[in-house]
Design goal:
Strand 8 (190-195) and strand 9 form a beta hairpin. Helix 3 crosses helix 4 and helix 4 crosses helix 6 (255-275). The protein has 6 helices and 11 strands. With 278 residues, the chain is an alpha+beta fold. Strands 1-6-5-4-3-2 form a 6-stranded antiparallel beta sheet. The chain has a 5-stranded antiparallel beta sheet with strand order 7-8-9-10-11.
Length: 278
Protein backbone atom coordinates (compact mmCIF):
# COMPACT_ATOMS: atom_id res chain seq x y z
CA UNK A 1 0.00 0.00 0.00
CA UNK A 2 1.51 3.32 -1.04
CA UNK A 3 0.72 6.82 0.21
CA UNK A 4 0.95 10.02 -1.83
CA UNK A 5 3.51 12.45 -0.36
CA UNK A 6 5.09 15.76 -1.35
CA UNK A 7 7.99 15.47 -3.82
CA UNK A 8 11.47 16.67 -2.88
CA UNK A 9 13.98 18.91 -4.63
CA UNK A 10 17.00 18.97 -2.31
CA UNK A 11 18.80 21.84 -4.02
CA UNK A 12 15.68 24.03 -4.13
CA UNK A 13 15.07 23.30 -0.43
CA UNK A 14 18.60 24.40 0.43
CA UNK A 15 18.35 27.56 -1.63
CA UNK A 16 15.11 28.43 0.14
CA UNK A 17 16.82 28.00 3.52
CA UNK A 18 20.36 29.23 2.83
CA UNK A 19 20.21 31.49 -0.22
CA UNK A 20 20.43 31.26 -4.00
CA UNK A 21 24.05 30.03 -4.00
CA UNK A 22 23.38 27.05 -1.71
CA UNK A 23 24.48 23.60 -2.78
CA UNK A 24 23.77 20.18 -1.28
CA UNK A 25 25.15 16.65 -1.03
CA UNK A 26 22.04 15.03 -2.51
CA UNK A 27 20.98 14.60 -6.14
CA UNK A 28 18.29 16.99 -7.35
CA UNK A 29 16.18 17.42 -10.48
CA UNK A 30 16.26 17.99 -13.37
CA UNK A 31 17.54 14.68 -14.69
CA UNK A 32 20.84 14.75 -16.59
CA UNK A 33 20.74 13.10 -20.00
CA UNK A 34 24.37 13.66 -21.00
CA UNK A 35 27.31 11.24 -20.65
CA UNK A 36 29.51 10.18 -19.03
CA UNK A 37 27.76 10.23 -15.64
CA UNK A 38 24.09 10.85 -16.49
CA UNK A 39 23.99 12.44 -13.05
CA UNK A 40 24.20 15.88 -11.50
CA UNK A 41 27.24 16.88 -9.44
CA UNK A 42 25.64 18.47 -6.36
CA UNK A 43 28.79 19.99 -4.85
CA UNK A 44 30.54 20.67 -8.17
CA UNK A 45 33.73 19.52 -6.45
CA UNK A 46 33.81 22.57 -4.19
CA UNK A 47 33.96 22.76 -0.38
CA UNK A 48 30.57 22.59 1.29
CA UNK A 49 30.20 23.86 4.86
CA UNK A 50 27.35 26.10 6.01
CA UNK A 51 28.28 26.06 9.71
CA UNK A 52 28.48 29.85 9.82
CA UNK A 53 25.23 30.54 7.95
CA UNK A 54 22.03 31.69 9.59
CA UNK A 55 19.05 29.38 9.56
CA UNK A 56 17.77 26.20 11.14
CA UNK A 57 20.74 24.35 12.71
CA UNK A 58 18.87 21.05 12.95
CA UNK A 59 17.87 21.29 9.29
CA UNK A 60 21.51 21.69 8.24
CA UNK A 61 22.81 19.04 10.62
CA UNK A 62 20.38 16.41 9.34
CA UNK A 63 21.62 17.12 5.79
CA UNK A 64 25.33 17.06 6.73
CA UNK A 65 25.75 20.66 5.57
CA UNK A 66 27.33 22.00 8.77
CA UNK A 67 27.15 22.02 11.68
CA UNK A 68 27.83 18.29 11.69
CA UNK A 69 26.28 15.70 13.95
CA UNK A 70 27.91 12.55 15.30
CA UNK A 71 27.59 8.93 14.36
CA UNK A 72 26.03 6.85 17.13
CA UNK A 73 26.12 3.25 18.32
CA UNK A 74 24.23 1.00 15.91
CA UNK A 75 20.89 -0.68 16.71
CA UNK A 76 21.04 -4.46 17.18
CA UNK A 77 18.89 -4.80 14.05
CA UNK A 78 21.45 -2.98 11.87
CA UNK A 79 22.96 -6.05 10.20
CA UNK A 80 19.62 -7.61 9.21
CA UNK A 81 18.24 -4.28 8.00
CA UNK A 82 21.40 -3.59 5.99
CA UNK A 83 20.97 -6.91 4.18
CA UNK A 84 17.36 -6.17 3.28
CA UNK A 85 18.19 -2.66 2.04
CA UNK A 86 21.12 -4.03 0.06
CA UNK A 87 18.64 -6.24 -1.80
CA UNK A 88 16.45 -3.24 -2.57
CA UNK A 89 19.48 -1.33 -3.85
CA UNK A 90 20.50 -4.17 -6.19
CA UNK A 91 17.07 -5.43 -7.24
CA UNK A 92 14.85 -2.32 -7.34
CA UNK A 93 16.64 1.05 -7.26
CA UNK A 94 19.68 0.39 -9.42
CA UNK A 95 17.79 -1.51 -12.18
CA UNK A 96 15.27 1.34 -12.49
CA UNK A 97 18.06 3.81 -13.23
CA UNK A 98 19.96 1.37 -15.47
CA UNK A 99 16.87 0.84 -17.62
CA UNK A 100 16.88 4.55 -18.45
CA UNK A 101 20.58 5.24 -19.05
CA UNK A 102 22.64 2.11 -18.37
CA UNK A 103 24.07 3.49 -15.10
CA UNK A 104 23.82 1.53 -11.84
CA UNK A 105 25.32 3.90 -9.25
CA UNK A 106 23.31 5.45 -6.40
CA UNK A 107 23.87 8.36 -3.97
CA UNK A 108 23.20 9.32 -0.39
CA UNK A 109 19.79 10.92 0.10
CA UNK A 110 18.19 12.29 3.26
CA UNK A 111 17.45 9.39 5.60
CA UNK A 112 18.97 6.76 3.35
CA UNK A 113 20.05 6.46 -0.27
CA UNK A 114 18.61 6.64 -3.76
CA UNK A 115 19.15 7.11 -7.46
CA UNK A 116 20.13 10.36 -9.12
CA UNK A 117 17.21 11.74 -11.10
CA UNK A 118 16.78 10.02 -14.45
CA UNK A 119 14.37 9.86 -17.37
CA UNK A 120 11.33 12.08 -16.82
CA UNK A 121 12.71 13.59 -13.56
CA UNK A 122 12.25 10.25 -11.81
CA UNK A 123 13.92 9.08 -8.62
CA UNK A 124 13.67 6.03 -6.36
CA UNK A 125 15.02 6.37 -2.84
CA UNK A 126 14.95 4.78 0.59
CA UNK A 127 13.96 7.16 3.39
CA UNK A 128 14.12 5.78 6.94
CA UNK A 129 13.48 2.34 5.45
CA UNK A 130 10.49 3.36 3.30
CA UNK A 131 10.60 3.17 -0.50
CA UNK A 132 9.86 6.53 -2.17
CA UNK A 133 8.98 6.69 -5.86
CA UNK A 134 9.05 10.20 -7.30
CA UNK A 135 8.34 11.34 -10.83
CA UNK A 136 7.92 15.00 -11.59
CA UNK A 137 5.51 16.48 -9.08
CA UNK A 138 4.12 13.11 -7.99
CA UNK A 139 5.62 10.99 -5.20
CA UNK A 140 4.50 7.97 -3.20
CA UNK A 141 5.76 6.26 -0.06
CA UNK A 142 5.65 2.51 0.65
CA UNK A 143 6.06 1.43 4.27
CA UNK A 144 9.27 -0.45 5.20
CA UNK A 145 9.11 -4.10 4.22
CA UNK A 146 9.59 -7.14 6.43
CA UNK A 147 12.97 -7.27 8.12
CA UNK A 148 13.61 -3.51 7.84
CA UNK A 149 13.82 -1.62 11.12
CA UNK A 150 13.32 2.13 10.51
CA UNK A 151 15.78 3.00 13.29
CA UNK A 152 18.48 0.82 11.72
CA UNK A 153 17.67 2.16 8.25
CA UNK A 154 18.09 5.68 9.62
CA UNK A 155 21.46 4.72 11.13
CA UNK A 156 22.56 3.44 7.72
CA UNK A 157 21.46 6.71 6.15
CA UNK A 158 23.45 8.64 8.75
CA UNK A 159 26.57 6.63 7.95
CA UNK A 160 26.16 7.31 4.23
CA UNK A 161 25.54 11.00 4.91
CA UNK A 162 28.66 11.20 7.07
CA UNK A 163 30.69 9.38 4.43
CA UNK A 164 29.39 11.58 1.60
CA UNK A 165 30.23 14.72 3.55
CA UNK A 166 33.78 13.48 4.23
CA UNK A 167 34.43 12.15 0.72
CA UNK A 168 33.17 15.35 -0.91
CA UNK A 169 35.51 17.33 1.36
CA UNK A 170 38.39 15.04 0.36
CA UNK A 171 37.48 15.48 -3.30
CA UNK A 172 37.34 19.27 -2.96
CA UNK A 173 40.73 19.36 -1.22
CA UNK A 174 42.44 17.38 -4.00
CA UNK A 175 41.26 18.69 -7.39
CA UNK A 176 44.58 17.77 -9.02
CA UNK A 177 44.09 14.09 -8.14
CA UNK A 178 41.54 13.57 -10.95
CA UNK A 179 38.62 12.85 -8.60
CA UNK A 180 35.54 10.98 -9.77
CA UNK A 181 32.03 11.67 -8.55
CA UNK A 182 31.14 10.30 -5.12
CA UNK A 183 28.88 7.34 -5.81
CA UNK A 184 27.20 4.47 -3.95
CA UNK A 185 27.74 1.10 -5.60
CA UNK A 186 24.88 -1.40 -5.24
CA UNK A 187 27.02 -4.54 -5.63
CA UNK A 188 29.01 -4.06 -2.42
CA UNK A 189 26.72 -1.34 -0.99
CA UNK A 190 29.70 0.95 -0.40
CA UNK A 191 30.10 4.63 -1.21
CA UNK A 192 33.37 5.87 -2.67
CA UNK A 193 35.38 8.33 -4.74
CA UNK A 194 38.38 7.60 -6.98
CA UNK A 195 41.51 9.73 -6.58
CA UNK A 196 45.02 9.66 -8.05
CA UNK A 197 46.56 9.14 -11.46
CA UNK A 198 45.90 5.72 -12.94
CA UNK A 199 48.75 6.20 -15.44
CA UNK A 200 51.24 6.86 -12.64
CA UNK A 201 49.93 3.99 -10.51
CA UNK A 202 48.42 6.24 -7.84
CA UNK A 203 44.71 5.57 -8.36
CA UNK A 204 42.75 4.21 -5.39
CA UNK A 205 39.22 3.83 -4.07
CA UNK A 206 38.50 5.96 -1.00
CA UNK A 207 35.27 4.84 0.54
CA UNK A 208 32.95 3.72 3.30
CA UNK A 209 31.28 0.34 3.65
CA UNK A 210 28.30 -0.38 5.91
CA UNK A 211 29.81 -3.81 6.69
CA UNK A 212 30.41 -7.10 4.93
CA UNK A 213 31.39 -10.74 5.52
CA UNK A 214 34.71 -9.67 7.06
CA UNK A 215 33.40 -6.63 8.94
CA UNK A 216 30.32 -6.87 11.18
CA UNK A 217 30.13 -3.06 11.46
CA UNK A 218 30.72 -0.17 9.03
CA UNK A 219 34.25 0.95 8.21
CA UNK A 220 36.24 3.38 6.09
CA UNK A 221 38.69 2.02 3.56
CA UNK A 222 41.32 2.86 0.96
CA UNK A 223 42.00 0.24 -1.71
CA UNK A 224 44.81 1.02 -4.18
CA UNK A 225 44.47 -0.12 -7.76
CA UNK A 226 48.19 -0.89 -7.96
CA UNK A 227 50.90 -1.86 -5.48
CA UNK A 228 49.87 -1.54 -1.84
CA UNK A 229 52.48 -0.01 0.50
CA UNK A 230 53.87 -2.37 3.14
CA UNK A 231 53.69 -0.04 6.13
CA UNK A 232 51.51 -0.44 9.24
CA UNK A 233 48.71 1.69 7.79
CA UNK A 234 48.06 -0.90 5.08
CA UNK A 235 46.99 -3.94 7.08
CA UNK A 236 43.25 -4.08 6.39
CA UNK A 237 41.28 -7.22 7.21
CA UNK A 238 39.96 -9.10 4.18
CA UNK A 239 41.40 -6.90 1.42
CA UNK A 240 44.67 -5.27 0.34
CA UNK A 241 44.46 -1.73 1.65
CA UNK A 242 43.84 0.42 4.74
CA UNK A 243 40.83 0.72 7.02
CA UNK A 244 39.35 2.59 9.97
CA UNK A 245 36.75 0.76 12.03
CA UNK A 246 33.39 2.15 13.15
CA UNK A 247 34.39 1.84 16.81
CA UNK A 248 37.36 4.13 16.12
CA UNK A 249 35.02 6.73 14.65
CA UNK A 250 32.67 6.49 17.62
CA UNK A 251 35.56 7.06 20.04
CA UNK A 252 36.94 10.09 18.20
CA UNK A 253 36.31 13.58 19.58
CA UNK A 254 35.99 14.88 16.01
CA UNK A 255 34.77 12.05 13.81
CA UNK A 256 34.98 13.92 10.51
CA UNK A 257 38.51 15.13 11.27
CA UNK A 258 39.63 11.56 12.00
CA UNK A 259 38.08 10.32 8.76
CA UNK A 260 39.61 13.11 6.68
CA UNK A 261 43.02 12.60 8.29
CA UNK A 262 42.83 8.89 7.48
CA UNK A 263 41.90 9.42 3.84
CA UNK A 264 44.32 12.30 3.23
CA UNK A 265 47.14 10.41 4.92
CA UNK A 266 46.59 7.43 2.65
CA UNK A 267 46.42 9.67 -0.42
CA UNK A 268 49.66 11.42 0.51
CA UNK A 269 51.44 8.15 1.31
CA UNK A 270 50.43 6.57 -1.98
CA UNK A 271 51.67 9.65 -3.86
CA UNK A 272 55.02 9.72 -2.09
CA UNK A 273 55.52 5.96 -2.44
CA UNK A 274 55.01 6.16 -6.20
CA UNK A 275 57.31 9.16 -6.48
CA UNK A 276 60.18 7.43 -4.68
CA UNK A 277 63.02 6.37 -7.02
CA UNK A 278 63.44 2.73 -7.95
Amino acid sequence: MSKVIAPRNAKAEAQGMLGADARVLEPSPPAVSQPPWYSDDPTEGRPLDYSQRDGDLDWRERRWLGPYGRLQALPVSFDATREELHKLAEDVLSPARAAANGKIALRWTLGGFGTPFFGADEQLRIEHGALIRQRGEHATREEPGEGIDPAAATALGEFYGFATSVLEALRAANPAADPSLVQLWPEHFDISVLLGSEKQGRRADYGASPGDANHPEPYLYVQPWGTVPSGPRWQAHGFAGAERRYEELLAAEDQRALALLFFQGCLDELASAQEAPG
